[in-house]
Amino acid sequence: MIFSARQAEIMAIAKEQGRVLVDELAARFAVTPQTIRKDLNDLCDTRALNRIHGGAVFPNGNENVKYEARRSMAAIEKQAIGRAAAALIPDNSSLFINIGTTTEAVGEALVDHKELMVITNNINVANRLRVYPSIEVVIAGGVVRGADGGIVGEAAVDFIRQFKVDFAVIGVSAIDEDGALLDFDFREVKVAQAIIANARHVVLVSDASKFERTAPVRIGHISQVHTFITDHCPSQNVRAICLDREVQLIETTPSDIDLEQSN
Question: How far apart are CA 66 and CA 17, in angstroms?
Answer without folding.
Answer: 8
